[in-house]
Specification:
Largest sheet: 5 strands, mixed, barrel
CATH superfamily of the largest domain: Ferritin, core subunit, four-helix bundle
Radius of gyration: 21 Å
Strand order of the largest sheet: 1-2-3-5-4
Number of strands: 6
Shape: globular
Length: 301
């Protein structure tokens, strides 16, 4: 009976996993070198640093952005923990009992105190701290991605980086609304500008001609974005038709790992208009011959 209860518990925990978690766990394990191990342990605590600072600053200023993004950072922590467990690596957060403001890494401990002290001076300083944390996070994620060839680790790092870009836009947007601004310290000014302008491009995307839920045009951008569901990332395309651009959601990355679609390809798409983008039911890349048929319920109607 005891073995049966344990078995039921394991099966239950498996089914509780989100699709993106299952996708990462099902990707092949590859050997790890010392740099990859060090990066995973560091990123686990660096995501905790972000969460803890935002929790502390929310308690100080009661600004919702800190509370909302702290929840996102908890998910970032969770995804790194998923990799630590997959590769049977020790969890530095477990050593501190996951207590807010307590870290194994001395530099992160010192940085936590410095950031909280700075962010406690004024609301503008607090928002600058948020931008600084995301600035650092993007730089460290880029460097960690360059040091690994493990596809599951790269996938998680890339998803976390997209999240950090969203957080950067949120903090800088509010900062400017309150009369402040931010100059990047860790990433280049050009990269910083590109991150901020990417939202403008997304918001200013014009609808190309849509006839009977059918569009066609040239691919001008291939990228990924977090979806509406937590932990789900979508492959996205920007399609240009006669000077007008349409944002297209191709498929979640856990369903379609890679699409043979590149900038400059001509594509034909059938789908439907979602809340934030045109969603693909069927796509044919006339340049490469790549085809994809979605199994979304909406596409079956």
């Amino acid at each position: 009976m005891k073995k049966l209860i344990i078995l039921i518990g394991l099966v239950g925990s498996l089914f509780a996993l989100t699709p993106v978690e299952k996708y990462i766990l099902q990707m092949p394990k590859q050997s790890l070198n010392s740099a990859e191990v060090k990066d995973l342990e560091h990123m686990r605590e660096e995501e905790k640093l972000a969460r803890d600072v935002y929790i502390t600053l929310y308690n100080k200023w009661k600004l919702p952005v800190f509370k909302n993004i702290s929840k996102s950072e908890s998910w970032h922590m969770h995804m790194i923990k998923l990799l630590l467990d997959k590769y049977n690596l020790p969890d530095p957060v477990a050593k501190t009992g996951n207590r807010v403001g307590v870290f194994v890494h001395p530099k992160l401990q010192k940085l936590y105190y410095a950031l909280v002290n700075q962010g406690s001076k004024s609301l503008i300083d607090a928002l600058k701290v948020g931008a600084t944390i995301e600035d650092l996070d993007i730089k460290d994620l880029d460097e960690a991605m360059a040091r690994t060839d493990n596809q599951d680790i790269k996938r998680v790092y890339a998803n976390l980086r997209h999240g950090s870009e969203n957080h950067m836009r949120a903090f800088v947007g509010l900062l400017r609304r309150y009369g402040g601004d931010y100059t990047p310290v860790f990433i280049s000014q050009n990269e910083f500008n590109a991150i901020l302008s990417s939202k403008k491009r997304a918001n200013n995307v014009l609808k190309t001609k849509i006839t009977n839920n059918f569009v066609r045009g040239k691919v001008v951008r291939v990228y990924t974005l977090p979806g509406l569901r937590r932990g789900v990332t979508w492959i996205m395309l920007d399609i240009n038709d006669n000077g007008k651009t349409l944002r297209v959601a191709l498929a979640p990355t856990w369903i379609l790992n890679k699409a043979n679609i590149q900038i400059g390809d001509y594509v034909e798409i059938k789908g439907f208009q979602g809340p934030y983008s045109f969603v693909v039911c069927y796509i044919k890349d006339k340049t490469t011959g790549f085809e994809y048929q979605s199994n979304l319920k909406r596409c079956q109607k």
